[in-house]
Design goal:
By secondary structure, the chain is of the alpha/beta class. The chain contains ten helices and twelve strands. β4 and β5 form a beta hairpin.
Length: 355
Amino acid sequence: MPSRKAILIAIAAVLPVWAAAAVAPKKILVLPFSALGRADEKARVMDVLTTDLARMGYEVALPELAEPLLEELRIRYLDSMSKGSVNQLLQDTGAGALITGSYWLGKAELAPEVAIMARLVGPDGELWWAGVKAMTSDDTKGAFGAGHKKTLEALAPSVSHALLDSLPNPGDRVPVKGLSRPGGGGHARSATAAGRAQGQQTLALLPLQNFTEDRSAAKIIESLLLLRLGAHHVSARPVEPAELRRALVDEKLPPFRVLGPDEMKKVAAKVGATLVLQGAVYNFGNTADLAGQISPEVVVSLSLFDVTSGKVVWHGMHGRTGKSYEGWLGMGRVRTLVGVADATLSELLSTLPSD
């Protein structure tokens, strides 16, 4: 049996880690989400999200409080920002963290679809939680059509409820486990905390090329990639898109084309990255099989460039349809386009080298 002294030493070793654990604050700042795809004010996604957060017990600081500072800092994109900007926003609004993200309104399998991607960001840009949830109106259909949400406006609350189900309540410790199954709401590992423990590298995700007819396809895939990278490759912390955009502007490089090795090295040096990930989206939409059945389909390719060696250390291309996951009697089929995209990326990233 261990001595009393040994037990006290063991407890003392654990206490600093426990004390440093992040706790969800009472007050949070909700920034306007980026609307991807077609805009539809009737969906009222932001109103639904803020209402759900208030029901959870959060004191919600609305975007209007941050507008003067956002203008002063000339922050154009609200889905990502530097840690300095995050700290200033939190200080000015008195919030302990902010929620940022994007949503997509569209049609999958010819049914209305709502997808929401969100991140809870603490001081210094620390990622505390992230989630993604997508649903079509058919997902809400019960026996004999009961509970069927046929419109985007009716569907949005169901998506918001499901997404925020994994968000910690005020005062709870921030979770650090990985994202849940593709297509569902879930937790994202705190990349910064994980990196301190593992001496992680830093990864810059370049804007993806878009070869689809959907103008928002690349942006949606990029948003999902940022959520998924920490779950699959915790030794590489993604650079915030805001920092990367600034580096591309400083180096006078166009954002939507493949960069050469020398250009990638310049960008990487600017943001302190050791790895660069770039790629393309080849398909993002509905497709019909030989029997005429409609199903969402996504095809993506990615390449990982090591700045130190100057070589491509990994390349992958992967495509899936909603029917790819269909089992007996149609069970398991993914009906949402964003859900198929998330599952495709999850499988593709699982082939990344572990170190």
